[in-house]
Specification:
There is one protein chain. A two-stranded antiparallel ribbon has the order 1-2. Helices cover 78% and strands 10% of the residues. The chain has one domain. The chain contains two helices and two strands, in the order ββαα. By secondary structure, it is mostly helical.
Length: 119
């Protein structure tokens, strides 16, 4: 397993990861470092453990909001698909009615044409 050195709040941490995940781990630690720096600006230095916990809680809250919004979007998409299916069904029924009306009109026109040709 490769080891990756990351920096969070000016401190170096060595983390093991799966092969090929090194860059991803560095990117994730960069996100955590940015969140910790954001917290430092608002609460000041309160200790590494507390800062990391607060950063984790903020990130968990953001993730929860994102998941909640995604679920809302999925519900909306399901409703839109259902509405589209209903509209497609209505369209198919309207097409059938129109086709039947055209067939009826064509039959009447043929009947009229036949009567005129006999007259």
């Amino acid at each position: 397993m490769p080891l990756v050195n990351v920096m969070v709040n000016g401190r170096a941490y060595t983390i093991a990861c799966d092969q090929g995940e090194e860059e991803h781990l560095k990117q994730l630690s960069g996100v955590i470092d940015a969140k910790v720096k954001e917290l430092l600006g608002s609460v000041g230095q309160v200790g590494d453990q507390r800062l990391l916990l607060m950063a984790a809680l903020l990130m968990a809250d953001e993730q929860h909001e994102a998941v909640t919004r995604l679920e809302e979007i999925e519900r909306e998409l399901t409703e839109l698909k259902r509405a589209q299916e209903d509209a497609n069904g209505e369209l198919a029924r309207a097409e059938n009615v129109a086709a039947a009306a055209l067939e009826s009109a064509a039959a009447r026109l043929e009947d009229i044409a036949a009567r005129l040709s006999r007259a």
